[in-house]
Amino acid sequence: MDSDYLTQSPYTDPGPRLAPLVGSTPLPRDPAALAALVRGVLLHREEGGRFGYAVPEERMREDAESRYAEDVLRILGERGDTPLTEVREPAARFVGTCRDFALLLCSLLRATGAPARLRCGYGTYFQQGLNDNHWVTEFWTADRGWVLADAQLIGGLYDISFDPMDVPRTEFLVAGDAWRACREGRADPDTFGVSTVPTIKGWTLVRADVVADLAALGGVEALPWDGWGLMEKDGADVTEEELALLDAVAAAGSAAGRAADVRRPDAVRRLLDDPRLAVPAEIVSHTTYGGERAVSLPVPARG
């Protein structure tokens, strides 16, 4: 299958860390089984109470700053020698965010021959009345095309009424859909936010997520608190021309989930050539616990 989304990015590439953790038990090829595997070795840093586990402060602070699937696997290897296919006790898991669930599932799907990519947007299913900033995995099926999967929801920890391997697009809004709903007056921007940090919400967040989702479609699966280009502008400084550009980004992101093939959409390629949207070699990371810092990134070629 010829697909841009079968190729590992620098962020999803498991490197040499995967084989030792797999051992003699081969990875399953079924997407649902892979998602269950991810759920069994990862712990969201806000989930400790659900497991009766007090997450060590250093893990809250450090694990989720891991950008690369290879580092997630390295940390898992340091915390236990059980294969990835076995569910781990909380203390032996990687402690991350929703983006890490999406990243590792995407990495394993690509490794087992299924086109996959990360999507940035909003889950309606965490807090009543809030479209919560969230990342999920989108994978390709021959009969359905692109399907949304949320590995964090596997196992009944969350009260949902749908299959986490087939998340309705009314329950998870890709960032482009959120932007368009706000621009067209169908949604209040202040209902889009971060449940753990109530002050982060509104237009600034939605604008940043539209750009982050475009970057993920282009092979740069950033951390949720990274910023560059139009993501970093004050709202009052965003021009009408830039708003029109963001409208185009949102339209491309929305259309990507309905695409009838597995190649990177031409609209995504064109938009990523715009310096206001392209991911530079150095970005600003507004880290949760470590403050703001500059970070150098490996930016993949976009042919």
TrEMBL record:
It comes from the Bacteria. Gene3D superfamilies: 3.10.620.30. This is Transglutaminase-like domain-containing protein. It holds the Pfam family Transglut_core. The lineage of its organism: Bacteria, Bacillati, Actinomycetota, Actinomycetes, Kitasatosporales. InterPro entries: Papain-like_cys_pep_sf (IPR038765), Transglutaminase-like (IPR002931). Residues 90-153 form the Transglutaminase-like domain.
